[in-house]
Every structure is written in structure tokens, then in C-alpha cells.
Amino acid sequence: MDFKINITINGISKDILNALLPNIKELSYMYLDETFKGNKVAFYYKDINNNYSISYNDTVCFYSASTIKILACLMILEMALNNKLDLNKKILITAKDLKQDTGIIKYQKEDTYYSLEDLVKLTIVESDNTAYLKLVEILGKENIKKYGNSLGAEYTMVGKETDSFGIINTNDMLIYWEAVKKFIDDNNKYSKIFKEWLSTPTVKFINDDSIDNLNFVRKYGSWDIAYHEAGYIEDKNPYYLIVLTQLNKFDYKEKFINDTAEKIMKIHRKIYKIKNEEK
Fold it and tell me: What pLDDT was estimated at residue 6?
């Protein structure tokens, strides 16, 4: 390359990379501009069929916010699949359990029983903090940490002892989502509903038209300056898309994350256009 950029590129042939260079420069300049402003931003694109990847700041850590919630949900479903938990078990949520910010359980007027399955669904679809923190209580924070580490993640639940979210980087987030996709692709009895919940969240940061209106199996996270979305996009040539930012105090945060998605989609489409022309 004729200039230095803070982007890591793996698995892409030299010929394709040369054709992608204008697109990669455009994306890298957008990210470098935020870096020069003192803002922390990162992305990870990985083609699932061919293991091509392009990333920026893949080892830089961010507060995970609600993106980490997929890990507890995956752990619960795996345990249920192995008959270690009963998703029909009723869990009492009392007034002292109610947490503010995201979710709908906080509006309940009286102590209410929810099934474990209800809590998983609400954690994913509504990003419900009360449901999630009850799952953490049931599983145990240290057990979730061990589970994340067993998958290969480095920073699961790292942070204040009183915090049940911790830090994350795109490398660890990719590991979580590879485990989620494997669970879904195994076509077990929970695969379909898990995928449906992850595909139909109440809140979406990346707009459908930014990803060619394809299905995005996803989870967002937002707290203080953290503003993230991660998951995988279903297509003939599916790919992982992870965008982590500390831009939540800026009014252009939504544009930035959607511009990222659009530029990565263009790169993805261009790769396969070139590959098809080579056949």
C-alpha cells in the first residue's frame, strides 16, 4: 500500500485488495478522523464463507453496554439444551429487582412471575436491564466470565465488581457472535426462536437500508458514551459486522454507524463482484 492506515486486513488476495483500496481508504479516513478528534471507534468485518476480514482497532476496549447480554442468553439456552436449566421455571421479579434505563419490566405495578424463557426474550428483544441482571444473578457473574473465557474471549466481565457488563473489543465480540451463529446453525430446539428474537429487536441502530434490507441477527449496546451494534448479516455470502464507538454524546453517532455499515456492505459486494468476474 502507498500509505499507512490503522486497519488490519486478512485473507484477501492482492488483486482484490488493490481493487478495494479506494473503498478501504474512504472507510479508514472516516475512522482516523474520529481517532484524531480523540474519539474511540472500532469495526470488524468478517466474511463467513471465506474468512476474509477487515478491522480497525480490533484490540481496543470499550464499555460493552448491552452488547454483552447475548452471552448470558446464549449460556442460558445452552444450559437448557443440556437439561441443566428449565426455561419454564418461574422467576419472581419484585420491586427491589427493578432496574431503570432499557426495558419494560420496570413498569410493572406489582410483584410478577416470569418464566426463564420470558427473561431471555426480554433481555434480547427489549434489552431489558431487569431481565438481564436477573439472569446474571441466576447464572453468577463469575460463571458467565468463565463461560466467555472458555469460548476464547479475553475480557468477559472485566471491570468493576459491582458492574455486570464489563469491557469488550471487536475480537471478543466476534468470538461471542461466532458461538451464537454456531448455536443457531445447529438447528436445535432453541435455534429458531433465538434467531427470531435477535432478528426483531425493538431498537435498531443500523437501519435496514444501510445493509440492503437483509436480515441482521444483532444486539445493540448504548450507555453514556458507548454506542455499539454487532451481529451477522444473512446473505448468500453472510458476514459478521461489529461496530463499537464512543460517540453517544454526539448527534452524528447514528450517521457514523450507518455510514460504516453502508461502506462495509459496498466492500463486501465488491469482493464478490470481482470474484464472480474472475470465474
Answer: 65
Quick: pLDDT tens for 78-112. Answer: 999 999 999 999 999 999 999 988 899 999 999 99
Give, for 16, the enclosing helix (H) or strand (E).
Answer: helix 14-36
Predicted confidence (pLDDT) at residue 5 exceeds the cutoff of 50 = no
Q: Quick check: 184 and 217 in contact, CB under 8 A?
A: yes
What is the per-residue DSSP string for 101-143? SS-SGGG-SS-EEEEHHHHHHHHHHS--HHHHHHHHHHH-HHH
Nearest-angstrom CA–CA distance, 144 and 29: 37
How large is the average pLDDT for residues 118-136?
97
d(CA 104, CA 92): 15
- Starting from the edge strand earliest in sequence, which strands make up the sheet with 216-223, in order? 7-10, 53-56, 41-47, 239-246, 226-233, 216-223
- Separation of alpha carbons 253 and 266, rounded Å: 20
Cα angle value 37/41/47 (rounded, 5°): 145
CB-side neighbour CA atoms (13 Å) of 188: 16
Strands 90-93 and 167-168: unpaired
Domains of the chain by start residue, with CATH = 7-67+78-84+154-278 (3.40.710.10)
Report field, pTM of the whole predicted structure over 0.85: yes
Angstrom distances, CA of residue 262 to CA of 54, 116, 202, 209, 267? 14, 37, 21, 8, 9
